[in-house]
């Protein structure tokens, strides 16, 4: 397990994929900031609260900065989960996994790969945050309030857990079908406001109670829904957003990760 993780990190650091994705996240983020700033400066008429913050070049806090930039929308989660598909399917495409599987249980391999996805989640999120801070810093944005670092790191930690939960689901589907195409489709399905979320929301609107409540409750436990609500103030299912999201993320990580290991550990890799 640890050897697989070390091998993955070595290959990623000495390969091109990780650095290409790192550059892509940073460039897209800074470009989005510059485009948003340009558009706000050319808006005519009355500004809403969010647009006014951009126009005044001031945020309440760093957590507000990340929220307004849309860290809980799809940019980070899409790029991170696409990369997850490429990473977890690579050994099957190259045939490298056949050398690892000779006469041994593969449970440790899948655990090691999940650890790699966790490390990549942390890395991609940090790249997103640092590039956002650099972009807004270059433009001269300032902060009005003293940062509550407990709230800030709690928010960032939940963002990482949410991205990792979606990555774990994508990895499970990719390993189950041994297909990059299935992984890409799953990646699209599990995104915020993706097909899974839209389908459950639509079903909740079409049916009467109590059936509609079942669909609504199911939607509230999707990792994508909890991820998109991290910057909300209203409760979910009677619980604080952070607690509901924490339970949902940990549950999906355990479910997808555990299923991936249990189903694939004795499965032929041919």
Automatic annotation (TrEMBL):
The chain crosses the membrane at residues 18-40, 69-89, 110-131, 151-177, 184-207, 241-263. Keywords: Membrane, Transmembrane, Transmembrane helix. The keyword Hydrolase does not apply. It comes from the Bacteria. This is ABC-2 family transporter protein.
